[in-house]
């Protein structure tokens, strides 16, 4: 683990009067941390921080985010610039390898992504084993785990780049195949002439009987959406990938775990929940004020999905870009979606309400992304899969950073035990 050691230390005084000096670690954006790694050894104490509200699990050189100021940068580049000027393949390279690729490097990276876009034909049988109602996240995670059966050498350091491109390329193919299977259509194989996002659109929406023309508006929007989701430092799914990877598990297993962590409604599953919430409000007559009152009064544990964030206490910069994009893309596609108007009205009202102001709850990345995916033709249950494809380079970059760090240790938090003291076993007849 790197990070500059400050000359200063923090002193912790314990109830018995003992005190211990703890080093301060400073990040490149002047973030300060108290390094408690020697605390237990020196004092017998551990720290308690459930939900890791205030725990730096690692140092990392991949993504910088300042939740108070609404700043997000990948490898130093502001998200706004990357969303406007870059494309998903280039951003994936940037996140994983730490620098923007030269033209030669990007061409080779793209060539590798194209080369590895097929999955073993035997794997096609696996899709048939799922019920048609299976959530695509269940299928995706199982299929990514299955990839490890086909590539048992994925922990060979010499083959790291090969497995990175395999993962990036095949997850996209699996996602599209699982969609085609779920709607009972024949799968569409990738086309080598197409780029990453165009190829995905082709596999999702082409049918064998006619030529599918890729809309440049859709392709650009998809590139932007995936870029906006590509990394977010130590979030729940990325921390899961790092945790699984820290045991020495292979990258397919680690990424499959990340997919499962992402699925939850408080994390990547929120984009599906947002649309279902908006549809529910619309179907109930459109009275969003009643819905907001239920949220504020915590009736039925309701939350305004797509609002709030553990780290952002300001407008999520990704949501700002997505809101503008939603207007632009829907207009280009000629889609008039009343859910977009409803979402905007709810946002405007919520941002004036004391409840949301005092808790610093703003729209997050999931509030508008579902409306975009819907307009682009993706069914609601594919939204979280789209998030997973976007987050993939981030997961891979963190897994790679971790396995290449000689200081990595297996992730193993402590606990404070609150159960029974020692007691004697009671035979069944005496209970
Ligand atoms: N609607 C209503 N109240 C909320 C919301 C919300 N969306 N989010 C937080 N709160 C309230 C919460 O009830 C709590 O109130 P109180 O202090 O009275 O108990 C307070 O705000 C703090 O909430 P918390 O759950 O302790 O905060 P957290 O940092 O643990 O949770 C969160 C962050 C994202 C899980 C939460 O804001 C949430 O559930 N949001 C809705 C789900 C969502 O949109 N998730 C996507 C997050 S962005 C994509 C990603 O990276 O995963």
Specify the oligomeric state.
single chain
Largest sheet geometry: 3 strands, antiparallel
Question: How would the global form be characterised?
Answer: globular
Mean pLDDT: 95
Question: What would you call the structural class?
Answer: mainly alpha
Name the beta content range. Answer: 5-15%
Order of helices and strands: EEEHEEEHHHHHHHHHHHHHHHHH
CATH class of the domain at 71-134 and 162-242: Mainly Alpha
In angstroms, what is the radius of gyration? 23 Å
Q: Which CATH architecture of the domain at 71-134 and 162-242 would you pick?
A: Orthogonal Bundle
How helical, in percent, are the residues? 40-55%
Count the DSSP helices. 18
Distance between the termini: 52 Å
Strand order of the largest sheet: 1-2-3
CATH superfamily of the domain at 71-134 and 162-242: Citrate Synthase, domain 1
Q: Briefly note the CATH topology name of the domain at 71-134 and 162-242.
A: Citrate Synthase, domain 1
| Low-pLDDT stretches | none
- Work out the number of β strands: 6
What small molecules does the structure contain? carboxymethyl coenzyme *A
């Amino acid at each position: 683990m790197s990070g500059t050691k400050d000359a200063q230390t923090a002193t912790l005084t314990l109830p018995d009067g003992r005190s211990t000096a703890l080093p301060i670690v400073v990040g490149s954006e002047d973030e300060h941390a108290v390094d408690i790694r020697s605390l237990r050894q020196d004092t017998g104490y551990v720290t308690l921080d459930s939900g890791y509200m205030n725990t730096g699990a690692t140092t990392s050189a991949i993504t910088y985010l300042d939740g108070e100021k609404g700043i997000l940068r990948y490898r130093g580049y502001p998200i706004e610039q990357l969303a406007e000027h870059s494309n998903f393949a280039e951003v994936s390279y940037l996140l994983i390898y730490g620098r923007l690729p030269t033209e030669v490097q990007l061409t080779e990276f793209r060539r590798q992504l194209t080369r590895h876009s097929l999955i073993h034909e035997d794997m096609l049988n696996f899709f048939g084993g799922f019920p048609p109602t299976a959530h695509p996240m269940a299928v995706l995670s199982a299929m990514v785990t299955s990839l490890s059966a086909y590539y048992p050498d994925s922990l060979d350091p010499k083959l790291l780049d090969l497995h990175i491109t395999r993962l990036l390329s095949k997850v996209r193919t699996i996602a599209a195949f699982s969609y085609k299977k779920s709607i009972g259509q024949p799968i569409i194989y990738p086309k080598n002439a197409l780029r990453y996002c165009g190829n995905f659109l082709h596999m999702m929406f082409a049918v064998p009987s006619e030529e599918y023309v890729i809309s440049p508006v859709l392709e650009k929007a998809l590139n932007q959406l995936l870029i906006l989701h590509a990394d977010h430092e130590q979030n729940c799914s990325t921390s899961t990938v790092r945790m699984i990877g820290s045991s020495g598990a292979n990258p397919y297993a680690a990424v499959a775990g990340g997919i499962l962590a992402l699925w939850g409604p408080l994390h990547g599953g929120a984009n599906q929940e947002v649309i279902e919430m908006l549809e529910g409000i619309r179907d109930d007559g459109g009275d969003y004020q009643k819905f907001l009152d239920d949220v504020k009064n915590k009736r039925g544990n309701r939350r305004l999905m797509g609002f709030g964030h553990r780290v952002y206490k300001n407008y999520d910069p990704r949501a700002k870009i997505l809101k503008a994009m939603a207007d632009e893309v829907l207009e280009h596609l000629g889609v008039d979606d009343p859910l977009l108007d409803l979402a905007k009205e709810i946002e405007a009202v919520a941002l004036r309400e004391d409840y949301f102001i005092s808790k610093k709850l703003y729209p997050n990345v999931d509030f508008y992304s579902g409306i975009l995916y819907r307009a682009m033709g993706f069914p609601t249950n594919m939204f979280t899969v789209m998030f997973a494809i976007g987050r993939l380079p981030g997961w891979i970059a963190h897994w790679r950073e971790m396995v290449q760090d000689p200081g990595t240790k297996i992730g193993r938090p402590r606990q404070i035990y609150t159960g029974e003291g020692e007691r004697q076993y009671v035979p069944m007849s005496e209970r």
